[in-house]
Amino acid sequence: MFRISCLILLLFALHGCKIKQPEERKPQQIAFIADAHLGDIFGKFQDNNYQGIKNPMTGEYANIRTMNSQLHSTRIFNENYFAFIAALDDIAKRGIKQVALPGDFSDDGQPIHIRGLRKILNEYSKKYGISFFVTTGNHDAPKPFAQDAAKTDFLGKEGKEQIISSSKTILKTKENQLEPIITSDIKNGGYKETLNEMASFGFFPKKEYLYWETPFSSYSYDNYNFDQAVKESALEKRIYAVKNTNLFLPDASYLVEPTKGIWLLAIDANAYVPNEKLSGLPNNPNDFSGVSIGYNNVLIYKKHLIEWIKKVSAEAKQKGKILIAFSHYPMVDFNDNASAEMKNLFGSDKMQLSRVPSEEVAQVFADAGIQIHFGGHMHINDTGVRTSAKGNTLFNIQTPSLAAYKPAYKILTIHSNFDFEVETVVVGSVPKFSSLFPFYEKEYAHLQDIKSPNIWNKDILKTKDYEDFTQWHLKELVRLRFLPEDFPTAFLASFANLSGKDLLEINKNSSEIEKEVSASNLALQNFESWKGLDLIFDFYRLKNADELAAPEIGLNRLRQYEIVCKQLEKFSDEKMVLWAKIFLKTMNSQPSNHFKINLKNNTIERIKP
């Protein structure tokens, strides 16, 4: 009887203490759009009456870049405007209320483009109640301070190139060129200009945020005060000392709690490297190099971020907050661990290898407490996983660009404090994506008239949808830029025109080959239908889109590539061996399309369609 009484008293005591059971969390979703590179093609200059050129089909005026320039760039300049609208429409339709933009949201931080982006985001915020959170990329503030700039490749009348510049003094005149357009709206923005225009999208505190801080905040979560946050959010109070100089630069990093329990960590990983000789002038953009290298330079020039991230992640863990980090740059090797072979084959200055983060980056940020990080910059779909020597695991999720193949964005679904789902949404069908094609018809005719070498393939204007358009963009980019710039000439000459059958039989192991081909339910004639050049293009498709490219390439063709590369691995030519290893690693990657992450046991698993 005494024991029963004690149990009853214990139950009452527990009830009086109100012991809280773990709350059941409703799934919450955040969309990530990286590298939108939005150019406001219909924007108007504030200090010049130039409207662009008139579309012969629609009568609209537009300021667009040439198709030739698009097909020599890793990003599309014009049609991505329509893709961005289509992505936002899809997000709104799904009822997602939080959208993060991990940098390069603009072309180069030009006022005309930033104003256009701000207008679009405000419209979707007002109409659908979407909150946007942005962070800086190398194209949003090419230098820390604004500077004069010019683009020589806008499309002008009669299909000719049109120069648009912020200053006459930086121009080099040529014969037969169109009269340059001068407008300050084409300046490259710096931190002050870009952050002030984009102030409503995370860079500064808002009353509706449950919490907001920077690496320089003096307050804590427990004594948070909105008015104090506003005072400390001024850009002049968010500066750090540049190593080995007496200079100070702004840092736009912030932490925000937009909804209860979710902490979004926006890391400004722009690390501007000072020149050896400095001008001594205040706010001189020419005292610094660009920031495309990313986290390798963060470790040198922005160490204050590492200590701040350690503090934030420890506090998130202590308070039971879910911490999701995003920044412009990858934290993990994005080449499926093939970077060493790529350096040996192509050279360390090719294939954007200078942008590959060192292993130290992954170790440092894993140990700082980052578990899930969404990056951009590379315009690729990829997932990288690293576990540090101390046993901390970092999942780096590379978000594709809407301005490249394959155009897509990511959706993170938070099921619990440990269970996460990531889905990649391809933006394939885009209204009005071909509405600019009449402009390109004029450009093509002009290039024919002047007998331009290496003219682009007009078949790109026959594409059926935006997804197909980006694939054509990649195909022409490979032909016009990557092959001549990245591939060793001798290797390309010996490889490109060999058939799959030639490559398969390169070791002359006929019995072994027949056995493997037969085991894969293939025939030798299957290998005669393609050449080395096709394998190279499909390498780029896999490199850019990862799993998303597999259905287009086809499982049979991928199996053929695998068999061929295994033969090439045994060949006597070192370059062929390297190429085979690179391709095989690119084929065998972490889940990147639709997958789930469990932070309790640090696992990643594909979700099958």
Overview of the molecule:
This protein is α/β, with parallel strands linked by helices and 609 residues long. The protein has 20 helices and 21 strands. The strands form five sheets. It has a seven-stranded mixed beta sheet. It has a seven-stranded mixed beta sheet with strand order 9-12-13-14-15-17-16. A three-stranded mixed beta sheet has the order 6-7-8, with no helix packed on it. Helix 4 links the parallel strand 4 (98-102) and strand 5. The longest helix is centred in the C-terminal third of the chain and has 21 residues, at 466-486. It is globular, with a radius of gyration of 26 Å.
Shape: globular
Q: Count all strands and give the number.
A: 21
**Content-based structural category:** alpha/beta
Which parts are unreliable, with pLDDT below 50 for 5 consecutive residues or more? 1-23
**Spatial separation of the terminal alpha carbons:** 59 Å
Beta strand %: 15-25%
Portion in helices: 25-40%
Largest sheet: 7 strands, mixed
State mean pLDDT (0 to 100 scale). 94
What is the number of helices?
20
Q: What is the gist of this entry?
A:
By secondary structure, the protein is an alpha/beta fold. Helix content is 35%, strand content 16%.
Short key terms for the protein model shown above:
609 residues; alpha/beta; 7-stranded mixed sheet; disordered N terminus
